[in-house]
Amino acid sequence: MSARLQISVKKLLSEGCAELPVAVRAELLTLESCYADGERVCCQSPDEVALWAVLRGLMSEYEASTYLNWKAFESFVARALEEAGFATLKNVRVKTKYRTVEFDVVGHDGRRVVVVECKRWKRSGAYLSVAEEHAWKVRAASEWLSRFGKVALPVVVVLKGRAVAEGALVVPIKLFKGFLEELDVAFAEAGIELSKSR
Question: Cα-atom radius of gyration of the chain, to the nearest Å?
Answer without folding.
Answer: 18
